[in-house]
Amino acid sequence: MVSENKTAVAVVMGSDSDMAVMQSCVDMLGEFGIKPAVRIISAHRTAQIATEFAQNAAENGIKVIIAAAGMAAHLAGALAAKTTLPVIGVPLISSSGLDGVDALLSTLQMPPGVPVATVAIGKAGAKNAAVLAVEILALSDEVLAGKLAEFKRGQEQKVIEKDSALQ
User: Fold this and answer.
1) I want to staple 100 with a disulfide (CB 3.0 to 4.6 A). Which of 3, 121, 130, 160 is the partner?
2) Residue 37's beta-bridge partner residues?
3) In a 10 Å sphere around its CB, with 0-12 CB exposed, 13-18 middle and 19+ buried, how is residue 49 labelled?
4) pLDDT tens, residue by residue, 104-135
5) What domains are there in the chain, each with its CATH number?
6) pLDDT tens, 50-90?
7) DSSP letter string over the chain?
């Protein structure tokens, strides 16, 4: 069966400054025909809004949440605590001088029973979060599964072409 994936993914950021990195996530989702719901919600400054968003996400058609934050990086965990949907955390580099390692550890170290699938720090992680969300959705969407297979073949072909150029 084919599901409608126009807004099946939410991309949530702790700050508007995070959009510079997370645009690559939004763009990657777009390559698969997914137009995500994009929000700025702070785990600390808008805690009630974060709770309401997470609790109502499934009812609003969201199937996967991608949450990006730096510094304390509690956004993904705060959302995961309030939903049964899969949450993918994207750690971001902040001004702390720790190159995002602080955010990585905050996103990664969740207590048992409250998982957050955590990807790499920054833009590479943002792109991988999008692909991981597509992989999750493709489990029940044949059209999306086909697009994902085509994407993977395209990646393989690019490497083959780069190798051939060296020969």
Assistant:
1) 121
2) 10
3) middle
4) 999 999 999 999 999 999 999 999 999 999 99
5) 9-166 (3.40.50.1970)
6) 999 999 999 999 999 999 998 889 999 999 999 999 999 99
7) -----TTSEEEEESSGGGHHHHHHHHHHHHHTT---EEEE--TTTTHHHHHHHHHHTTTTT--EEEEEE-TT--HHHHHHTT-SS-EEEEE---TTSSTTHHHHHHHH-PPTT---EE--SSHHHHHHHHHHHHHHHHTT-HHHHHHHHHHHHHHHHHHHHHHHHH-
pLDDT > 90: percent of the chain? 90
Residue 121 amino acid letter = I
Predicted TM-score (pTM) of the model is 0.94
Q: 58 - beta bridge partners?
A: none
pLDDT for 3 beyond 80: no
